[in-house]
Amino acid sequence: MASRQVRRRSRPRGCCSLAALLALAALASSPGRLGAAGAGEGGSGVKWHVVSVSSLLPSEVCTATEAAAPINPSALSVVHRHGPCSPRRSRGDPPPSYAEILGRDRERVASIHRKAGRAAASKGSNATLRARWGKPLGTSNYFISVGLGTPARDLRVEFDTGSDQSWVQCKPCGDCYEQHDPLFDPEGSSTYAVVSCGARECREFGSRNCSSSSDGQCRYEVSYGDQSRTVGDLARDTLALTPTAAVPGFMFGCGHRDAGVFGEVDGLVGLGRGKASLASQAAARYGAGFSYCLPSSPSTVGYLTFGGAAASASANAQFTALVAGQHDDASFYYLNLTGVKVAGRAVRVPPAAFATAAGMIIDSGTAFSRLPPRAYAALRSSFRRAMGRRYRRAPAPAPFDTCYDLAGHEAVRVPSVALLFGDGATVDLDPSGVLYAWDSVSQACLAFAPNPDAASLGVLGNVQQRTLAVVYDVGNQKIGFGAKGCA
Ligand SMILES: *[C@@H]1O[C@H](CO)[C@@H](O)[C@H](O)[C@H]1NC(C)=O
Ligand SMILES: *[C@@H]1O[C@H](CO)[C@@H](O)[C@H](O)[C@H]1NC(C)=O
Ligand SMILES: *[C@@H]1O[C@H](CO)[C@@H](O)[C@H](O)[C@H]1NC(C)=O
């Protein structure tokens, strides 16, 4: 198969037509966000955001431009897989239903809880030390375009801060799901190399029964909680992130048998804390750390950028320390969330209701943040009080329970929500991370959900991370959140 010309750092195909650019110009002259009002106590943030109701719904046109990414040669564009900027949508496929999105999100959180449970169950034994290419989570909602091999093949892969293992579907594929691009062909790459059974990384990351494979090639196997899985060769090849940034000898899984709900992405890159992740593999070249910005709406793009420069790009960021997780899971990034402010006032609940023993992770693949039940209940009552009687309540699809009917309103006053961390960092959320419009403005919901019990791991999801520059300063063991990282 002839390899196509590389289009690294490219927008998704069909993304920026003239029509889309004209639409962008139109948007620029009528900004969706009307402004913010009322200074918060203690100087941090505002009490209210006044948001135009129509801006709560994603646009049907892709308004992405290169300008959405910072002027940084190692930045990649981040695209929401359900939005009009995604290749799937530009081909005319309908967006998934909201029930489907919620179902996937539930499955993702359930698999995080299962994974944390397994790690807890084996704590004290050395069973988890093998750190196989396995036990990852479901898929995430954002993807990037990267180039793999020499000459580089352009591939669209999800990125996932909740797992370490990266893989793509490879030729020959006996049993693969349908993907957007032609399969990656190892024979078409002059720099492709399999990992042998005897190699150290095979013992560390390969599948258990490697030694029994006849050809001496290291296999990997990633099993998902929901029966999804990928099986193939553990391999190395050059991974081109941008035209000027590449990771030679990048270790990944070349999948020959893959099944599951991955959408149509060509694979997945793990950005977890563990040694196998792209974040760790890129650290030697670009410095430990990466940062990203997830756009406020599926119709725009954000970025993902690697290296130490990523950290300095966000001088206004509020930094909070990474903490040790109860479950010792090497791939998760744990944070110490101790409170929430609504409309400038801390909700009345002891920090222990937030910082439960189970802890909280930040995850790019979960959509709606999950809080311990007591913490969620406190947030919900403060939010309902702040919304007052100005807006009609609307039926709430589970897991939500606080929705409003905004039909007939031109603008909505959204109470500000800020996350408070144990070391004093205060992070104001974008209003797009507070109120989530269901399929119409007649059902706009508080975009958080409670965990089933206080013993379950909390998750800071991607909806709450929208528009923030999220800086993983892995070298200094801290994570920063900067306002207005992208649109
Ligand atoms: C796990 O622990 C057992 C007993 O302590 C030991 O015999 C075994 O070699 C250990 N396995 C690994 C992979 O370290
Ligand atoms: C490991 O061995 C079992 C049994 O022979 C086989 O079914 C499975 O596919 C193997 N796993 C890999 C990754 O080759
Ligand atoms: C979280 O922050 C609180 C308040 O500063 C502190 O008492 C607690 O020890 C911290 N927890 C962790 C796990 O660091």
TrEMBL record:
Keywords: Aspartyl protease, Disulfide bond, Hydrolase, Protease, Signal. Residues 142-482 form the Peptidase A1 domain. The active site is at D160, D363. It comes from the Eukaryota. Pfam families: TAXi_C, TAXi_N. PROSITE patterns: PEPTIDASE_A1. GO terms for biological process: proteolysis. The keyword Signal applies. GO terms for molecular function: aspartic-type endopeptidase activity. Residues 1-28 form the signal peptide. InterPro entries: Aspartic_peptidase_A1, PEPTIDASE_A1, Peptidase_aspartic_dom_sf, TAXi_C, TAXi_N. Belongs to the peptidase A1 family. This is Peptidase A1 domain-containing protein. It comes from Panicum virgatum. The lineage of its organism: Eukaryota, Viridiplantae, Streptophyta, Embryophyta, Tracheophyta.
